[in-house]
Write a structure and sequence with these properties.
The chain is an all-alpha fold. It has 7 helices and no strands. The relative contact order is 0.12.
Length: about 200
């Protein structure tokens, strides 16, 4: 494959995505053998792990969807700029951080102390929305557009416009999480699952 202006940046981003996905499984700990004396004990220990496993799956879906979107966006761009590189860096910051609030949410979502975990989780999703907004804005810079195709430019412009809805939704959900953490956690999870289904349908067309 011939090297492009963004080859090194894309390989670096892919490496960060891959490492973030790989490290997710570390949060799922095998139940200590000293606490398991019967088959029923093991089933109970696995049951206690379910919130952590669900948090792992949610993190995996979130990072996977973001990587697919990132990969498709890079297909539209054939140049780079400093604002574009730093916006990508901000996105990677959100990616490597998101397993922590997701795991925290998995541990506390069914307790009376869920609000801080869900607020933090919503804030990371908001950070991701901000980074996408900055990535597309950098690509659309009229003084230095990062694509020479009008079709690609229109696609990025549509992504940029959609980003405003993402910013508004994630800002609203993060604020509401102070009072309705469980409802917000469910809504955000369903939004990511919806994006996964949409992405699979697009891929299959």
């Amino acid at each position: 494959m011939p090297e492009t202006a963004n080859s090194r940046l894309e390989m670096f981003c892919d490496g960060v995505f891959a490492i973030a996905l790989t490290l997710l499984i570390i949060d799922i700990k095998i139940p200590p053998t000293e606490n398991v004396s019967t088959t029923a004990d093991l089933w109970l220990a696995i049951k206690h792990l379910l919130p952590t496993i669900l948090a792992f799956l949610l993190s995996f879906i979130t990072i996977l969807i973001t990587w697919v979107s990132h990969h498709n966006t890079f297909k539209l761009i054939n140049k780079s700029s400093h604002p574009f590189i730093y916006a990508n860096g901000l996105m990677l910051l959100a990616i490597v951080f998101i397993p922590f609030p997701t795991s925290l949410m998995g541990d506390y979502i069914l307790t009376d102390h869920a609000a801080p975990a869900v607020v933090l989780y919503g804030a990371v999703n908001l950070l991701m929305s901000i980074s996408w907004h900055l990535v597309t804005r950098a690509a659309l810079n009229p003084n230095n557009p990062l694509t020479n195709s009008e079709k690609s430019m229109n696609t990025i412009r549509n992504i940029h416009k959609t980003g405003y809805y993402s910013l508004a939704i994630n800002t609203t959900l993060t604020i509401l999480a102070f009072w309705f953490p469980l409802a917000v956690a469910i809504i955000i999870s369903l939004l990511w699952i919806t994006w996964l289904v949409i992405g699979m349908n697009i891929t299959g067309d």
